[in-house]
Amino acid sequence: MIHALESRGEAKLLAVTVTKDNMWAAPFIDAMDTFYGRANIPIGVVRDGKTPEDSNMIRLPANRKRPDGSFVYPHHLTDGREAPEAVGLLRRILARERDGETVIVQVGFSTNLARLLDSKPDDASPLPGRDLVKRKVRLLSLMGGAFPQGEPEYNIHTDIPAAKKLFAEWPTPIVASGYEIGNKILYPAVSILKDYGYVKDHPLAEAYRDYMKMPYDRPMWDPTAALYAVRPDSFSLSASGVITVDDQGRTHFTTDANGRHRYLIATPEQNAAALRAIIELARRPPDR
Q1: Which of 94, 82, 75 is nearest to 15 (CA)?
Q2: Where are the domains of the chain?
Q3: Using CA atoms, how far apart are residues 229 and 63, in angstroms rounded to an integer?
Q4: Is the per-residue pLDDT at 288 higher than 80?
Q5: Using CA atoms, how far apart are residues 58 and 32, in angstroms rounded to an integer?
Q6: How far from each other are the two terminal CA atoms of the chain, in whole angstroms?
Q7: Which of 222, 236, 239 has the alpha carbon at shortest distance from 267?
Q8: DSSP secondary structure string, 75-101?
Q9: Which fold has domain 2-282?
Q10: Under DSSP, is residue 26 helix (H, G, I), strand (E, B) or coil?
Q11: What are 165-182's pLDDT values in tens digits?
């Protein structure tokens, strides 16, 4: 989606950082970026992070080779442990951007951004992490939580201390796409089966097949946060308030006119329009 939005002139992808501590996550991202014609997008990875478990949907596409030994999906990064550490990369990227213009989309855990808040001045910037974020970031759009109430959501529950810190200390507006939003927007299996056939091998379609047996429709939790970050008119918003995280990983929203937090709200019509937009963007071929 982000690659398609950049091709349309609506966004520019500055970098990708990973909160899954598995060696195949970054190579898969590199393969996707290369497939879409942006092989030079910087990739940073978490150190001592969560979920080191392997996953077919990233390992198999990232490591798939032709009979001659070349990668089916070309990429240069073959082991995420060789990639730069995420917080240092975030600092370098933010330091070079204009003040108040960067939007961060978080669709994983809060590990990297919580650590960014605690980061020290370095060669990239004389500012400590929280001040650097406050100066450079306009918005944090994240997928996490359940609103106005619900069970502990995966992205929050996986690293509760980091999520607590993020909501308590992040100095810019935060908009959360809760579990309930993406759960009502199902990407249709028929699109995976038909819309990506413009090439023999497509990394996204293969990842879907490797995740579990096709056909299956998949909730669009993460893509809703990405869509809002670039097209905020896609959804409505709650009142301003404060989001907190309890010890079980549940999110709690308290209305506060001075609060910097809001969460997405969607009518059935907005859900349908968001799905159409996600399909249109995701199936767009690379510009070649």
Answers
A1: 94
A2: 2-282
A3: 31
A4: no
A5: 10
A6: 17
A7: 236
A8: -S---GGGSPBHHHHHHHHHHHSPTT-
A9: Inosine-uridine Nucleoside N-ribohydrolase; Chain A (3.90.245)
A10: helix
A11: 999 999 999 999 999 999
Tokens for 50?
């969560």
Angle at 285 (CA atoms; ends 280, 288), nearest 5 degrees: 145
| Token pair for 212 | 């579990």
The values of phi and psi at residue 75, to 5°, are -165, 160
pLDDT in tens, 212-269: 999 999 999 999 999 999 999 999 999 999 999 999 999 999 999 999 999 999 999 9
* In the chain, alpha helices (H): 2-7, 25-35, 56-63, 86-96, 111-118, 129-136, 154-158, 160-169, 179-182, 189-194, 203-211, 221-230, 268-282
Q: Phi/psi of residue 259, each to 5°?
A: -70, 155
Residue indicated by tokens 């993020």: 166
Q: For residue 167, what are its two tokens?
A: 């909501």
What is the C-alpha to C-alpha distance for residues 176 and 141, in angstroms, rounded to an integer?
A: 6
Cα–Cα nearest to 201, from 35, 2, 25: 35
pTM above threshold 0.90: yes
Which band of pLDDT confidence, cut at 50, 70 and 90, is reported for residue 45?
very high
